Amino acid sequence: MIIVRLMGGLGNQMFQYALARHLSIKNKDRLKFDLTFLLDRTPRKNFTFRDYDLDVFEINPPITLLSKFSKITNRGPFILAEILYRLQKKLLPNKVLAEKKAYYYDDEVLRRQGNLYIVGYWQCPKYFDDIAAVIRKDFIFKSRLSGDALDLYKKIRDTNSVCINVRRADYVNNPQYNQFHGVTGMDFYDAAIKIIVDKVSAPHFYIFSDDIEWCRSNFNLSYPTTFVGHEFKGPKFSHYLQLMIACKNFIIPNSSFAWWAAWLNSDINKIVIAPKKWVNALDINIDDVLPEEWIKI
Q1: Are 194 and 106 in the same domain?
Q2: What phi and psi, each to the nearest 5 degrees, are found at residue 92?
Q3: Residue range(s) defining the domain that contains residue 103
Q4: Helix residue ranges, H only, 132-174
Q5: Average pLDDT, the chain
Q6: Sign of CA pseudo-dihedral 157, 249, 167, 224
Q7: pLDDT tens digits, one per residue of 88-127
């Protein structure tokens, strides 16, 4: 059995699922989700609590027994799960597949066999490149666009659309996140926009952000621009992600959510521009995070 511990927001959970799905296919084994970490609400300093978000897709892997209990009480099952995990890691280390180093591809991971308990973020497309078609098929949304969101989708498809995603919120307000991730600044966006206008005829910029008012004050473009606020987010931001995917080109920050929007777009002619400084830590190389064909600045 392949069990993956889900952590973080939707983008992070998608990376974790993609690796676990690949291992379940290679090993011809069942896949289960461990939600105990996500569902636990034990107070933690500078921590952003998340929810289980993969149910926005047409995938329904079973969850572990402890995860079912976690839906009833948000504390005891998590503590028990931690005890079991630590015992398993100590007594049965060959069953625990823990990420050794964030943002790096470990080619030994996909050779692991047998029952596995997967813990990590696994933000590297090399872990699922071989099953890219399967992952794209799995990430089909349950909630389809309608009303104003559908109208906006059609406008995005009818223009030379460029998705600009701006993440601020927790990257600005959470000291721990700010220290590790940093904030992608206007110098990056200005340089990326210059590249786009040199390559794309009559671009229309669609700006998606958790701080639309900041974007209105800082993006003064001499091209058609549409600010897409959270009124279009839909269930668990699934409509937001669908609208971003619909764009034809992308300028993304250091965000796994935006990464997936660009990756899930299947246009072979798309332009994707991303920051080569993905995190603040100078000793972390992110060459394995961004596909080779993406432009890094």
Answers
A1: no
A2: -130, 65
A3: 2-138
A4: 132-138, 147-158, 169-173
A5: 88
A6: negative
A7: 665 555 688 999 998 999 999 999 999 999 999 999 999 9
Asked whether residue 287 falls in the same domain as residue 186, the answer is: yes
Whether 174 and 131 have beta carbons less than 8 Å apart is answered as: no
Residues 95 and 133 in one domain: yes
Same domain, 128 and 182: no
pLDDT of residue 198: 97
Instruction: Give which of 72, 272, 138, 266 is closest to 192, Cα–Cα.
Output: 272
pTM, two decimal places: 0.90
Confidence label for 282 from pLDDT (cuts 50, 70 and 90): low
Q: Which amino acid, 157?
A: R
pLDDT of residue 169: 59
Which of 121, 138, 155 is the last residue before a domain boundary?
A: 138
In a 3-state reduction of DSSP, which class is residue 96? Answer: strand
Are both 72 and 54 inside the same structural domain?
A: yes
- Classify residue 59 by burial, with Cβ atoms within 10 Å: 0-12, 13-18, 19+: middle
The rounded distance, in Å, linking the Cα atoms of 98 and 44 is 22
Q: Which of 18-22, 153-157, 170-174 shows the lowest mean pLDDT across its residues?
A: 170-174
| Whether residues 39 and 85 fall in one domain | yes
> CA angle at residue 112 from 111 to 113, to 5 degrees?
115
Question: Are the C-beta atoms of residues 33 and 4 closer than 8 Å to each other?
Answer: yes
Query: 273 and 170 in one domain?
Result: yes
- Final residue before a domain boundary, out of 138, 173, 192: 138
Q: Give the DSSP H/E element, type plus range, for residue 70.
A: helix 65-70
Tokens 């794309």 belong to 200
Q: Tally the domains of the chain.
A: 2
